[in-house]
Write a structure and sequence with these properties.
212 residues, GTP Cyclohydrolase I, domain 2
Length: 212
């Protein structure tokens, strides 16, 4: 049995049952975040020494280290091991769930990414596409940039004939504050190569993405 993760730890349990740090966490200044969170608590009129809040700065620091660890990793590495393959039709992975953080209010947005490409003689492992989405999402950002970053990585690293990325997300900065529209959904897309120049290829990809 894998060992349980210690409460409030900045460690995760990997598939082998070993405790490991989230990617990029070693480059996050945890004490500085902790001090800042403590100041925020004081600024809003709370007592950071109150029993229920005493460990909150540390918890938030470790949470931010996990959520923003993608700032200090290179997701391109997941696409650098490829396999020679004559397959030249669409490869599409739908409904890759993700969580990210909007850089405007530092509130979460979450949803699914659909990523596809037309191979040019080589393919990547399917899980590697999900890992790219995961690491790119662990940054403060806007959804539009995230969509383009994933598409650019896939085009450059896979040398694909075409790339399509569609992201559907709910933004808590719109659902719990401001306009407070809980049912709103933001959809962004990025296309590269043949999907930009060939309407039938693009239509095929979009039809598969939208297929229920």
């Amino acid at each position: 049995m894998p060992p349980p993760t210690p409460p409030d730890s900045d460690l995760l349990v990997n598939g082998s049952g070993d405790l490991v740090s989230p990617p990029g966490v070693e480059n996050i200044d945890l004490p500085r975040i902790q001090a800042a969170v403590r100041e925020i608590l004081v600024a809003i009129g709370e007592d950071p020494e109150r029993a229920s809040l005493k460990d909150t700065p540390g918890r938030v620091a470790r949470m931010y280290a996990e959520l923003f660890g993608g700032l200090h990793t290179d997701p391109a590495r997941h696409l650098q091991r490829v396999f020679e393959e004559k397959y030249d039709e669409l490869v599409l992975v739908r409904d890759i769930s993700f969580n990210s953080m909007c850089e405007h209010h530092l509130l979460p947005f979450m949803g699914v990414a659909h990523v596809g490409y037309l191979p040019r003689g080589k393919v990547a492992g399917l899980s590697k596409l999900a890992r790219v989405v995961e690491e790119v999402s662990h940054r403060p950002q806007v959804q539009e940039r995230m969509t383009h970053q994933i598409a650019d990585l896939m085009e450059e690293e896979l040398q694909a004939k075409g790339v399509v990325v569609v992201i559907e997300a709910t933004h808590t900065c719109m659902t719990i504050r401001g306009v407070r529209k809980p049912n709103s959904l933001t959809v962004t897309s990025a296309v590269r190569g043949l999907f930009k120049t060939n309407q039938s290829s693009r239509a095929e990809a979009m039809a598969l993405i939208n297929r229920s």
